C-alpha cells in the first residue's frame, strides 16, 4: 500500500508544526514546533485558549504588584504568554519549541541577549531544560551577533526572517543552531516583482534559495541546521524533501497527509562533494554590501520585522482589553 507524502517526508526530514494551535499540534504529532507573534496572536483569540491568556494576565497582575499600571501588567503578560504556549506545546511534542524575541529589538544586540536570557529563565523556572527551547531572532547583523553570544552560553537559537545566502553564511559562522529560510515569502516577492502568476515548484525562487543554502552548509561542513519555512503549497515542500527540518502549517500538513504518491529525496548531503561552490567569508561590511545588493532580502527582512511588530502591538492591545474585562469581572463578584 502506498504511503502518504507526510509519512515519507518524516523518514528523511524532521517535520515541525508551524502553529500556536495546540490542537493542531496534537493532531499531527510533529517532532518540534515553532511559533511567532502572528501565530500567538491568532491562537490567543481562539476561545479554547482563553484560559491560558487569562491565567497569564492574572498572574502578571499579581506579580506586578498593586501599584503597577495596566501597561506594565500587559508588558509582563506579553513576555510570559509565548512561554505559556511554549510550555503547553512541550507537553505534546518530544523535541523543541521555538519562542521569539520581541521583533522591536531586532537591531539591538544587547537588548536581544537580555530578552533571550529572560525567556530561558522562565522556561527553567517551569522545569524545562534549555536544550528543548530555541530562541527565535531576526537575521539582522545585530541579531546574528546576539545569537553568537547566546550560543556560547548554551542558549540555542533559531534565526528567522532569513532570505539571503549572506544571512545564512553569517549565521553558520556565528555557530547558530538553526536557521529558518522563508520559502513562500521569497516566492511572493518574485511574483510581485516579475508579474508572474506562478512558478513550477522546481524553479520556485524560494526553493532554489533554500537548496543553495543547504548545499553550501553541507559542502563546507557547517553544523547549523536548515529548516525551510513559510510554505505556500506542498510542491515547495516536496522539492525540499531531505532538508534537515521543514516547519509546515497545519493546512499543508493535512494536505501532505491526504496525498498518496512517491516522494523522492531532493536534498542529500552525499551529493554536494562534487559540487563547485565558492566559499565566502562574511564580516559586517560584506554582509551589509550583499544585503544592500539583494533587493528581495532587504525588502522582505524589513517587511517581516514590521509585520511581526504589528502583530505584537495587536497582541498587546488584545491583552489590555482582556485585562480590563477581567478586572471588571473581579469587581462585579465583590
UniProtKB/TrEMBL annotation:
Could you tell me what this protein does?
Transaldolase is important for the balance of metabolites in the pentose-phosphate pathway.
Q: Which UniProt keywords apply?
A: Cytoplasm, Pentose shunt, Schiff base, Transferase
Q: What class of enzyme is it?
A: transferase
Superkingdom field: Bacteria
Question: Pathway, per Swiss-Prot/TrEMBL?
Answer: Carbohydrate degradation; pentose phosphate pathway; D-glyceraldehyde 3-phosphate and beta-D-fructose 6-phosphate from D-ribose 5-phosphate and D-xylulose 5-phosphate (non-oxidative stage): step 2/3
| Active site residues per record | 136 (schiff-base intermediate with substrate)
Q: Name one GO molecular function term.
A: transaldolase activity
What compartments host this protein? Cytoplasm
Reaction(s) this enzyme catalyzes, per UniProt: D-sedoheptulose 7-phosphate + D-glyceraldehyde 3-phosphate = D-erythrose 4-phosphate + beta-D-fructose 6-phosphate
Q: Which CDD domains match?
A: Transaldolase_TalAB
Say if the entry is tagged with keyword Cytoplasm.
yes
Q: Tell me which GO cellular component terms the UniProt record holds.
A: cytoplasm
**Name by which UniProt lists this protein:** Transaldolase
Q: Which organism is it from?
A: Anabaenopsis elenkinii CCIBt3563
Q: What is its main location?
A: cytoplasm
Q: InterPro entries attached here?
A: Aldolase_TIM, TAL/FSA, Transaldolase_1, Transaldolase_AS
Record-listed E.C. numbers = 2.2.1.2
Q: Name one GO biological process term.
A: carbohydrate metabolic process
Q: Which residues form the signal peptide?
A: none
Record family assignment: Belongs to the transaldolase family. Type 1 subfamily.
Amino acid at each position: 500500500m502506498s504511503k502518504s507524502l507526510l509519512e515519507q517526508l518524516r523518514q528523511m526530514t524532521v517535520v515541525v508544526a508551524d502553529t500556536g494551535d495546540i490542537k493542531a499540534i496534537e493532531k499531527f504529532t510533529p517532532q518540534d514546533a515553532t511559533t511567532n507573534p502572528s501565530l500567538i496572536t491568532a491562537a490567543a483569540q481562539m476561545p479554547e485558549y482563553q484560559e491560558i491568556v487569562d491565567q497569564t494576565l492574572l498572574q502578571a497582575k499579581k506579580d506586578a504588584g498593586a501599584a503597577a499600571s495596566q501597561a506594565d501588567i500587559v508588558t509582563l503578560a506579553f513576555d510570559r504568554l509565548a512561554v505559556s504556549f511554549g510550555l503547553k506545546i512541550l507537553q505534546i511534542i518530544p523535541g523543541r519549541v521555538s519562542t521569539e524575541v520581541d521583533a522591536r529589538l531586532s537591531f539591538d544586540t544587547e537588548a536581544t541577549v537580555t530578552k533571550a536570557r529572560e525567556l530561558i529563565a522562565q522556561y527553567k523556572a517551569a522545569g524545562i531544560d534549555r536544550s528543548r527551547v530555541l530562541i527565535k531572532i531576526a537575521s539582522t547583523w545585530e541579531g546574528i551577533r546576539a545569537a553568537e553570544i547566546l550560543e556560547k552560553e548554551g542558549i540555542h537559537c533559531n534565526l528567522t526572517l532569513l532570505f539571503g545566502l549572506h544571512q545564512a553564511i553569517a549565521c553558520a559562522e556565528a555557530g547558530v543552531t538553526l536557521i529558518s529560510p522563508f520559502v513562500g515569502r521569497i516566492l511572493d516577492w518574485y511574483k510581485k516583482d516579475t508579474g508572474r502568476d506562478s512558478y513550477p515548484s522546481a524553479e520556485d525562487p524560494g526553493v532554489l534559495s533554500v537548496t543553495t543554502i543547504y548545499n553550501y552548509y553541507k559542502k563546507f561542513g557547517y553544523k547549523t541546521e536548515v529548516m525551510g519555512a513559510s510554505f505556500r503549497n506542498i510542491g515547495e515542500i516536496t522539492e525540499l524533501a531531505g532538508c534537515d527540518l521543514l516547519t509546515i502549517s497545519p493546512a499543508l500538513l493535512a494536505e501532505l497527509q491526504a496525498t498518496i504518491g512517491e516522494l523522492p529525496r531532493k536534498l542529500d548531503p552525499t551529493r554536494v562533494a562534487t559540487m563547485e561552490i565558492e566559499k565566502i567569508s562574511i564580516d559586517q561590511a560584506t554582509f551589509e554590501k550583499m544585503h544592500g545588493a539583494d533587493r528581495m532580502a532587504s525588502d522582505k527582512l524589513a517587511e517581516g520585522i514590521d509585520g511581526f511588530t504589528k502583530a505584537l502591538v495587536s497582541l498587546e492591545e488584545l491583552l489590555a482589553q482582556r485585562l480590563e474585562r477581567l478586572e471588571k469581572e473581579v469587581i462585579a463578584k465583590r
